[in-house]
Amino acid sequence: MASGEKTNRSKASDGVAEAAQEPVVEFVTDDEPIAPAPPKVEEHSESSHQKKNCLSEDSSRPVLHLEKIILHLRDVKEKNDKRIEEDESAIRKITETVEETKPKLEALKLVLDLKERKRAAIIQQLKEQCEMAAKASGEAGALINSLKSKSRSLAKNHAATKMIVDKGFNARDSVKSLREGKTQAIKTTLATGKYDAQTSSIHDRTYKFERPNFHQTLPIRPSATL
Question: What is the C-alpha to C-alpha distance for residues 126 and 132, in angstroms, rounded to an integer?
Answer without folding.
Answer: 10
